[in-house]
UniProtKB/TrEMBL annotation:
Residues 219-256 are annotated as: Disordered. It comes from the Bacteria. Residues 34-196 form the CobW/HypB/UreG nucleotide-binding domain. It comes from Streptomyces cellulosae. This is Hydrogenase nickel incorporation protein HypB. InterPro entries: CobW/HypB/UreG_nucleotide-bd, Hyd_mat_HypB, P-loop_NTPase. The keyword Hydrolase applies. Belongs to the SIMIBI class G3E GTPase family. HypB/HupM subfamily. Keywords: GTP-binding, Hydrolase, Metal-binding, Nickel, Nucleotide-binding, Zinc.
């Protein structure tokens, strides 16, 4: 009997989840925590990451970064100016990273000692949201220029985030960005998640973001999003008064 596309997709994701869990355990054994950065193209996450890396280097935090794109090494060159070890990963046309590909690029490259590995995923809020990379933190970035309803349009990405970062806040006025509506939309798909405001141009939010990451590395509490993978194979759903609305919005939007 031929397998359906849904069955094939689930098998691919299940295999990836297994590899991701193994990679997470291996890196944790080396004292490395992975931070997976997701966003649309043009969100400003590369510049923000460059600022965070530079601040980490200043504070003598053992940090490294791996940046993924379909083509060019432009982002790696930009990030390398921070002084942190950086590696470019070219996906050969794929719109997302997978745990297998990440493992291949980390092996034999990741410097010792590294405590934090930032992975800048491909600019895309659809496919990357379905793939666990072995991260401890998944951070979704969004620029004010993208519109306050973005979390409702991409509930899988925002619903799986441990932290949300709003970027380019200096453009909120010209973009007529409705911050109140944005906050409400984020909480609808991911109740309780923190939103960090940032502007790479003037440094707003850089220290806050780094502090949140360092706190997680040091064993501090991490927000549990409704679509966070669970070690036993199921996903946590929102609880309390927001459960019905959030679960209803997320239903039908899970990437197979």
């Amino acid at each position: 009997m031929c397998e359906s596309m849904d069955e094939v997709s689930q098998a691919v994701l299940a295999k990836n989840d297994g590899l991701a869990a193994s990679l997470r355990a291996e890196l944790a054994g080396r004292g490395v925590m992975v931070v997976n950065l997701l966003s649309s193209p043009g969100s400003g996450k590369t510049e923000l990451l460059a600022r965070v890396l530079a601040r980490a280097v200043e504070r003598r935090v053992p940090v490294a970064a791996l940046t993924a794109d379909l083509a060019t090494e432009n982002d790696a060159l930009r990030l390398a100016r921070s002084g942190a070890p950086v590696k470019q990963l070219l996906t050969d046309g794929l719109c997302h990273l997978e745990a297998r590909r990440l493992r291949t690029h980390v092996e034999g490259w990741l410097p010792d000692p590294t405590a934090l590995l930032f992975v800048e995923n491909v600019g895309n809020l659809v496919c990357p949201a379905a793939y666990d990379l072995g991260e401890t933190l998944r951070i979704v970035c969004m620029a004010v220029t993208e519109g306050e309803d973005k979390p409702l349009k991409y509930p899988t990405a925002f619903g799986s985030a441990h932290l949300v970062v709003l970027t380019k806040t200096d453009l909120a006025g010209p973009a007529a960005f409705d911050a109140t509506a944005f906050d409400a939309h984020v909480q609808r798909v991911n109740p309780g998640v923190e939103v960090v405001r940032s502007c790479a141009r003037d440094g707003e939010g850089v220290d806050t973001l780094l502090e949140r990451v360092l706190a997680a590395r040091d064993g501090g509490p991490v927000h549990r999003p409704p679509l966070a993978p669970h070690p036993h194979g199921h996903r946590h759903e929102p609880a309390g008064e927001d459960a019905e609305g959030s679960a209803g919005l997320l239903a039908g939007h899970r990437v197979p």
